[in-house]
Amino acid sequence: MEKATVFNIQRFSIYDGPGIRTSVFLKGCNLRCLWCHNPESISPQRQLGFYPEKCIGCGNCFRACPEGAHIAAPDGHTIDRTKCVSCGKCANDCFAEALTMLGEETTSEEVVRAVLTDRGYYERSGGGVTFTGGECMLKPDFIRECAALLSAEGISVAVDTAGNVPFESFEKVLPYADLFLYDVKAADPDLHRRLTGVGNERILENLKRLASLGKRLIVRYPFIPPYNDGEAEAIASLLAPLPVELVEIMPYHHLGEGKYRPLGMENRAAEARVPSDDALEAAVTAFAHRGIPARRT
Amino acid sequence: MNEERVVLSALYADRIASLHESKIAMNDVKRRLNRVHDSDDWGFVVFEDFHYEPPKFRESGELYGGLEIAKALRKWLHDMPPYVHKDSALGGAWVDIIQNHLRIGLRPEDDVSPEIRACWAKYNTSPGFMGMNHCGPDMQIGLDLGWGGLLAKIRHYRAKLSPADTSFYDMEEETVLGIQTYVENVAAEAERMAGLETDENAKKNLLEIAAMNRYLVSAPPRTMREACQFLAHFQSVDRTYFSGGALSQLDELLRPYYEKDVRAGILSDEEAVWYLASLFFNDTHYSQIAGLIPDGSRDMTSRLSFLILDALHYLHIPINVALRVSDKVNPTLLRRSLEYTLEDGSGVDYSCNVGVEEGYARNGYPIELGRLRAKVGCNWVALPGIEYPLQDVTRCNMAMAFQEALKDMQETKNFDLEYLFERTCHHIRIIVDSIKAGYDKHYEAVGKYRPELVLNLFMHGPIERGLNASQGVDIVDFNIDGIALATVADSFGALEQRIVREKRMSFEEFFEIMNRNYEGREDVRLMMANIKRFGSPDSPSEKWALRLRDFYVKTCKESGTPKHNLPIIPGMFSHGDIYIHGRKLKATPNGRRDYEPISHSNEPDPGFARGIDTFSPTLKSNAVALAAPGYGNSAPLHLDIDTEMLEKAGGIDALAALIHTHNHMGGTLINLNCLSRKVLLEAHADPSTHPDLVVRVTGYSAFFSSLTREYRQQVVDRFLSRENR
Q1: Domains of chain B: total
Q2: pTM of the prediction?
Q3: Are strands B568-571 and B478-483 parallel, antiparallel or unpaired?
Q4: What is the C-alpha to C-alpha distance for residues A255 and B284, in angstroms, rounded to an integer?
Q5: What angle (nearest 5°) sits at the alpha carbon of residue B154, between those of residues B148 and B156?
Q6: What residues of A are in the B interface, CB distance below 8 Å?
Q7: B617: number of Cβ within 10 Å
Q8: I need a labelling partner for B409 at 20 to 30 A (CA). Which of A3, B61, B371, B627 fits?
Q9: Does residue B276 contact residue B309 with C-beta atoms inside 8 Å?
Q10: DSSP structural state of residue B501
Q11: What is the pLDDT of residues B612-657, one digit of tens each?
């Protein structure tokens, strides 16, 4: 049975595909988008999150840690991330939940059992289950097992991906996935590399191949001024020949910013800002001019 | 069927806006005078100079028997100042609950035993003894007969049965005569105001109100406006006499009048909306729209159902209308109701046919009867006119039973969770049995001390049989509401996880800390609080919640009341009184400190989700449906959702699917608020910043500004935002 590290099972999700869905978030990503709003999804490993505002100073973590990673500093409790091996012993004894482990190793059967509790909502809303991340397609065998079990139950499966994986990975899930939510972050390869750490050649090639197979495709364009808000025309031009069902323009929001510090990570998107309504409408129009249905989320 | 929204012309838009503004102003007065306490608006009008002197029957000033109370009520209805609003289609309003001005005695032989009273005190039980008003009237009786016809009916049956003691009929006669005086006074007030009015439209309206009320003193209503006026007077008198608040299937009641008036060319839709808004301005009585006809073959939604939603939306004050959901509910009506809730923050609540109707049938009643059970109370349902269910007046506080069980465990040093569960059940049974014993006494005595003077008129049986509704209707099935399910289940779950399984400390060590209210041991308190609580998938608490629910239901159902063998139907509803019921409860093993609030009804506590499962409305919905008692009485689901979460296209469809799914899982009632986090927090910090913010507290809606800080806090705690998604 396949396993994956899941960091969130979000029910009543109405942002990741049609209807009421359950979004299953997998850890691990091979892009490094500057603006990433789920930094806990980047590492494939379980991670220790530290929320000092919840700390009550009980000292349990100092006693529990076999690595001596917890340090009492003059300005408060800190963690030496070079020593931390993410064993979770401190979090297990931190009842204030100032320390929590992000991610649980989960089997495909466990995930399927968890998401089936909401079957009624899927059936009455045309919803289903969306696998996302991170880059969930880094675990294609896990997705395939989950999706096969769900398909057998008549549950719709969507895959939310940035597409930077070998197409063989897609082939594993194609028989069971009804819909792909496919990120396109920039049309220009160099810009894409600067923003995400990788070029977009394989991503766009995979997108074309998926489109040629007749799969339902919703393209998602994260709209992040000042990084890629000028890409609307070029992305629209790329997508124009493809049978894309919809383009969702996803404006930057601040909700991810608070997630970096607890992980000991640096937020590199200091310049990112929430786009104006006018800018978003202009982007919608750019797609509409090419006959591509688009909406802002 | 026309399903369009009504677009109001300036005249009616202005009139309804005027009613809205007047209600806001009245609420300010009520707040200033401290006349609002965590309840809905109720529609009463403050007359600061009004003074009432009740009739005196004996030196003590106490009143005994329905006839004395009826005479006091008749005098009240004569004395109370009549109220007419020049922009309303209807006259009348009530000014206070007469109960506040009477001293009603209770003879010792009709009281419960001191032992029962001591038991209620020990477990902080709300026993329902001498509770009243909690049955649903069949308003069709009154609409068919009018006040004059009701008077004739009383006199007819008094003559026909010729009982040795005629006081039952005499008190009902006094009541109707008092109401007729009140209606005459309203007519006179409208005439007086018309004489002073310079605006021609307003003058015309006031004269119409006057003429309508003169006619309705004795004759039954002929038009929709007259029918609404009759219902408004019922509401006012029903409130005056001990704060009753139930109407019934409002769309079906008014549909024949509406259709007849439209056919006759004397009624437009915007006038109908104005009449309905005027009825809602008059009072917040509970009513229902939509729902299946008895054979289940179709939904009752009509044009009237849509007009009621429009009136509710345009008036935008606390209003208590429920929409009965079934698979056959008109999808446009459901959708419209959700659109209005998103625009206004709150709107109708959703009564669920599977839990209410099919659940009721599990008691042995035909499902066709279950379908008639309308949502006519804050959280409760009743068969209009034929059932005496007395819902929402009892509270079996399971946490108080658990507290006694904890004492037993510590005294015996039997530190076994099965023993603790057995003792909890033992004490729950004592509470349930004490309520059942009280109900026997209630059944025998309530008609003598607190007769349903007003509701008897609108029930099938009391007048025909000469008996108070408690004995005179066909179906008597007493409700008992269990509360604090999650408080107890999470306490068991925490003990199981932390003490038994993880062996963090011994029971004795833990109890020593808990008994000191966790003083100086916040780490231990959080250790017990921060477990996977009831509502989280696969939580240990869920298993305990279901065991507790099963025992509670079995105890309620396995026998009727001890003397009269009257059947019991269990529910789980705490109203908003989670603070009141926590005030006598010491610290509990779920990390709850001394005297903090208990959990709500059978709902999970806020913040219950843990680990990779984050909060979602469906998790809460699943838990509430899973742990429902299952016999037709309510265990409501409260959803308070950030409007931003639903702004995406498809948000309304998702809510509709959520409602239908909760219904199919056996849910009974959904109380929904869709609010902006910013507005809610501003209003919580300073209620005066949003005087017209209306929220659904539990089954009732209220101005947020009229709630105490504790009540506001529970709405805020329930609130779901993007941040906790």
Answers
A1: 3
A2: 0.96
A3: parallel
A4: 40
A5: 100
A6: 6-15, 18-20, 56, 58, 60, 95-97, 103-104, 106, 114, 117-118, 120-121, 123-125, 127, 255, 295, 297
A7: 23
A8: B627
A9: no
A10: I
A11: 888 889 999 999 999 999 999 999 999 988 887 777 668 899 999 9
